[in-house]
Design a protein that fits this description.
8 helices, single chain, 191 residues, Na+/proline symporter, 2 domains, mainly alpha, transmembrane
Length: 191
């Protein structure tokens, strides 16, 4: 998607010239540090804090052969997440300054780019990919949370040793977490 948006905008030079000639976009739009430091650091802090408790981070730690492998795997993951996050930000900037896509909700610019600038076949592919990513992440978090709840709380407290019972309780916990998450999503839609 980054390549398509870059191509559609005519390149970074075209984006810069659009900022300079467009009266509705301020000249400091492309300056990275034209915002308060706290606002600039917020994405890094939230993503960084989330990385500490993610299941895949700890899977790399426990599955690694040694400390060196653990460090390499986690640094590669951090670099890939940083590059991905940077590309998402640049797509948003290019959509606003290069494609002229205006939106009241900047957090939804990705959808505006998908459905407003890309050819239909790529829009369909990107939307399907986005839904698949969301589903993959959601079920991984439900399974990880269920495993933690059952292994660390339910099993020791209720002294369950039967594997079939543990599996059944794990499945119930996944359902409970899904219902709880759905309720939170419906109650707090501005998150």
């Amino acid at each position: 998607m980054f390549i398509f948006v870059y191509y559609l905008t005519g390149g970074w030079d075209n984006v810069v010239s659009n900022v300079e000639t467009n009266a509705t976009i301020s000249n400091d739009f492309l300056l990275m540090f034209n915002m308060p430091l706290a606002e600039f650091l917020m994405p890094f802090m939230t993503i960084g804090a989330a990385m500490l408790v993610r299941q895949d981070t700890w899977q790399r730690v426990w599955a690694a052969r040694n400390l060196s492998t653990t460090l390499k795997a986690n640094w590669i993951a951090v670099i890939l997440m940083f590059v991905t996050g940077l590309m998402i930000i640049v797509i948003g900037v290019m959509a606003r300054a290069g494609l002229g896509i205006e939106t009241d909700r900047p957090d939804l610019i990705y959808y505006d780019v998908i459905f407003g600038a890309l050819p239909f076949w790529l829009s369909a592919l990107m939307f399907i990919t986005l839904v698949a990513i969301i589903m993959s992440c959601a079920d991984s978090f439900f399974i990880a949370g269920s495993t933690i709840m059952v292994s660390d709380i339910i099993k020791p407290v209720f002294k369950i040793t039967d594997d079939k019972k543990l599996l059944y309780v794990s499945r119930l916990m996944v359902i409970a977490m899904a219902i709880f998450s759905l309720c939170l999503a419906l109650l707090f839609q501005d998150l």
